[in-house]
TrEMBL record:
Transmembrane recorded as keyword: yes
EC number: 3.2.2.n1
Name this protein carries in UniProt: Cytokinin riboside 5'-monophosphate phosphoribohydrolase
Annotated transmembrane regions: 44-64
InterPro entries listed in its UniProt record: LOG (IPR005269), LOG_fam (IPR031100)
Keyword Plastid: no
Gene3D superfamilies per record: 3.40.50.450
Length: 196
């Protein structure tokens, strides 16, 4: 396990879907996460737009009084693919630039249930943490056990010795926004002996 130490998180990037998902609980938890961010005076960084889970978390955070920054590739703002971004909008040229700007503007990361796009984002941020490009905490909001299969897979990868246990500890998970943010606040990364 990672050692504990307290540090102030002011901005959290939330990776979440442009789809609402199958269960209404996904929408409810996205809305609740936004409220918790605002209550704790944490600002939101997200992928921009106003559809799916993205609109729930961004509106709840914005209405609660916290700043919201949507970072979105210019191509996605043309037409009505993603809807209007809540709060401030930062347009970028590429998906790679988007993830870099998300890293630059955030102190921690939360993934809500979603599909391939969120998995790509969370694994890219995690691989950068493994390579010591950053040491910001990364987490999964495990609503209804949504990420159980992914967490089991990561345990399997450790068991097969493709990653170290300290690399596995990059991923924090919890079932409520409150628990997750509490864990993000006290997280300190372990040193990976394989990457020194």
């Amino acid at each position: 396990m990672a050692r504990s130490s307290s540090h102030k998180i002011k901005n959290i990037c939330v990776f979440c879907g442009s789809s609402p998902g199958k269960d209404k609980e996904f929408l409810e938890v996205a809305n609740h996460l936004g409220k918790v961010l605002a209550e704790r005076k944490i600002h939101l960084v997200y992928g921009g737009g106003s559809i799916g889970l993205m609109v729930c978390v961004s509106i709840a955070t914005f209405i609660g009084g916290s700043q919201v920054l949507g970072i979105i590739p210019k191509a996605l703002t043309e037409g009505s693919i993603t809807g209007k971004t809540v709060g401030e909008e930062l347009k970028v040229l590429t998906m790679h630039e988007r993830i870099q700007k998300m890293l630059d503007h955030s102190d921690a990361f939360i993934a809500l249930p979603r599909g391939i796009g969120t998995l790509e984002e969370i694994f890219q941020i995690a691989s950068w943490a493994q390579l010591k490009i950053h040491q910001k905490p990364i987490s999964l909001l495990n609503v209804n056990g949504f990420f159980n299969g992914l967490l089991s897979f990561l345990d399997h990868v450790v068991e097969q010795k493709f990653i170290s246990d300290s690399s596995r500890q990059i991923f924090i998970s919890a079932i409520t926004p409150e628990q997750l943010i509490d864990q993000l606040q006290i997280y300190v990364p372990e040193v990976d002996p394989a990457i020194t």
